[in-house]
Hints:
Distance between the termini: 19 Å
Number of strands: 4
Radius of gyration: 12 Å
Shape: globular
Order of helices and strands: HEHEHEHEH
Helix content: 40-55%
Strand order of the largest sheet: 2-1-3-4
Number of helices: 5
Structural class: alpha/beta
Largest sheet: 4 strands, parallel
CATH superfamily: Rhodanese-like domain
CATH topology: Oxidized Rhodanese, domain 1
CATH architecture: 3-Layer(aba) Sandwich
CATH class: Alpha Beta
Amino acid sequence: xNTEDLxxxxxxxxxxxxxxLEFMGGSVFGAMNIxxxxxxxxxxxxxxxxSPLILCCASGYRSGQAEAFLSRQGLNCLNGGSWMDVNYLTxxxx
Length: 94
Protein backbone atom coordinates (compact mmCIF):
# COMPACT_ATOMS: atom_id res chain seq x y z
CA UNK A 1 0.00 0.00 0.00
CA ASN A 2 1.44 3.42 -0.90
CA THR A 3 1.59 6.46 1.38
CA GLU A 4 -1.55 8.08 -0.01
CA ASP A 5 -3.57 4.87 0.39
CA LEU A 6 -2.31 4.39 3.96
CA UNK A 7 -3.39 7.91 4.88
CA UNK A 8 -6.75 7.63 3.12
CA UNK A 9 -7.54 4.35 4.85
CA UNK A 10 -6.58 5.73 8.28
CA UNK A 11 -3.98 3.02 8.80
CA UNK A 12 -1.48 3.72 11.54
CA UNK A 13 -1.19 6.79 13.76
CA UNK A 14 -0.94 10.37 12.51
CA UNK A 15 1.59 12.41 14.46
CA UNK A 16 2.06 16.11 13.87
CA UNK A 17 5.56 17.24 14.73
CA UNK A 18 4.74 20.95 14.66
CA UNK A 19 4.82 23.14 17.77
CA UNK A 20 1.79 23.12 20.11
CA LEU A 21 0.93 26.66 18.99
CA GLU A 22 0.92 25.61 15.33
CA PHE A 23 -1.13 22.53 16.20
CA MET A 24 -3.74 24.65 18.02
CA GLY A 25 -4.13 26.76 14.87
CA GLY A 26 -5.40 23.74 12.91
CA SER A 27 -4.57 20.07 12.74
CA VAL A 28 -5.39 16.71 11.23
CA PHE A 29 -8.50 15.29 12.89
CA GLY A 30 -7.46 12.69 15.45
CA ALA A 31 -3.74 13.42 15.15
CA MET A 32 -1.38 13.47 18.09
CA ASN A 33 0.92 16.44 18.59
CA ILE A 34 4.50 15.49 19.45
CA UNK A 35 6.81 18.37 18.53
CA UNK A 36 9.97 17.39 16.70
CA UNK A 37 12.24 18.26 19.63
CA UNK A 38 10.21 15.93 21.90
CA UNK A 39 10.43 12.88 19.60
CA UNK A 40 13.61 11.41 21.19
CA UNK A 41 12.06 11.72 24.66
CA UNK A 42 8.82 9.98 23.66
CA UNK A 43 10.27 6.78 22.20
CA UNK A 44 8.47 4.51 24.69
CA UNK A 45 5.12 6.12 23.77
CA UNK A 46 5.85 6.00 20.03
CA UNK A 47 6.76 2.30 20.14
CA UNK A 48 3.31 1.51 21.61
CA UNK A 49 1.35 3.34 18.88
CA UNK A 50 -0.32 1.62 15.95
CA SER A 51 2.08 1.63 13.03
CA PRO A 52 2.95 2.93 10.63
CA LEU A 53 3.49 6.31 12.23
CA ILE A 54 2.39 8.90 9.68
CA LEU A 55 4.39 12.04 10.38
CA CYS A 56 3.42 15.50 9.19
CA CYS A 57 4.24 19.16 9.78
CA ALA A 58 3.82 22.44 7.93
CA SER A 59 5.88 21.60 4.85
CA GLY A 60 7.25 18.08 5.27
CA TYR A 61 10.72 19.17 6.38
CA ARG A 62 10.38 18.51 10.12
CA SER A 63 8.38 15.35 9.51
CA GLY A 64 11.20 14.21 7.21
CA GLN A 65 13.68 14.74 10.04
CA ALA A 66 11.43 12.81 12.41
CA GLU A 67 11.07 9.98 9.88
CA ALA A 68 14.84 9.71 9.46
CA PHE A 69 15.39 9.56 13.22
CA LEU A 70 12.56 7.11 13.94
CA SER A 71 13.52 4.85 11.05
CA ARG A 72 17.05 4.60 12.46
CA GLN A 73 15.44 3.53 15.75
CA GLY A 74 13.62 0.73 13.93
CA LEU A 75 10.11 2.20 13.93
CA ASN A 76 7.78 1.76 10.95
CA CYS A 77 7.04 5.33 9.89
CA LEU A 78 6.61 7.55 6.87
CA ASN A 79 6.71 11.22 6.03
CA GLY A 80 3.18 12.30 5.15
CA GLY A 81 4.39 15.81 4.30
CA SER A 82 2.21 18.81 4.99
CA TRP A 83 -0.48 18.41 7.64
CA MET A 84 -2.94 20.01 5.21
CA ASP A 85 -2.26 17.29 2.64
CA VAL A 86 -2.66 14.58 5.28
CA ASN A 87 -5.84 16.23 6.52
CA TYR A 88 -7.25 16.34 2.98
CA LEU A 89 -6.50 12.65 2.42
CA THR A 90 -7.96 11.54 5.76
CA UNK A 91 -11.09 13.59 5.13
CA UNK A 92 -11.70 11.66 1.89
CA UNK A 93 -12.32 8.55 3.98
CA UNK A 94 -15.29 10.05 5.83
